[in-house]
Amino acid sequence: MGKAFTVEDRPAVVLIDEIDKADVDFPNDLLTVLDKPMRFEIRETGEVGDKAIQAKHEPIIIITSNKEKGNLPAPFLRRCIYYYLKFPNTVQELQKIVAIRYKINKELGTAPASSLVEKAVQRFLKLREDKGLFKLPGTSELLDWLHALQSFDNQPLPDSQLTEENSIPYPELLFKLRQDFQKYAS
Questions:
Q1: What is the H or E stretch that residue 14 is in?
Q2: At a CB cut-off of 8 Å and minimum separation 6, what does 53 contact?
Q3: DSSP state for residue 104 in the 8-state scheme
Q4: pLDDT beneath 50: ranges in the chain
Q5: Is the Cβ–Cβ distance between 139 and 88 less than 8 Å?
Q6: With b meaning 16 or more CB within 10 Å and e meaning fewer, what string describes 148-158?
Q7: What is the pLDDT of residue 13?
Q8: For the whole model, what pTM was predicted?
Q9: CB 101 within 8 A of CB 143
């Protein structure tokens, strides 16, 4: 936050990801820092009094939360502008995300064949319908899984392997919790 406050020529953009997972006092402590005149002290480094860190430009703060750990304090929420992102739950939406990822990140190599992406996304969406999962896989897990399906054995996995009759290849990339992994690992 100190670096964001001291950017000289323009406002900095600060991303605080998954604030709901932070210490319970963090949102309220953040309010203290962001309150006018946007300054804070760090006793341990001697940045106190006249040497306190003062914002040259008000930073743009983007905060994400998925409400995994409960609600945030009401005083904090009153000062926020909300934008709810709906999970992309169609094959077409997820195919677009995959295409953009491979377009932007050239280090990943060649994008998977459209038939592999389509079958993988269909299987992924079917998994997300499983009400018995403790934690649903998200787009990050889908992208990692697709990368493995495309390149793990130096050749793409045949999309015929992604039918519901077959076990899920590389389930450890889709599931975050052991209970979910064990349910689908064979």
A1: strand 13-16
A2: 2, 5, 6, 39, 40, 41, 42, 47
A3: H
A4: none
A5: yes
A6: bbbeeeeebbe
A7: 95
A8: 0.74
A9: yes
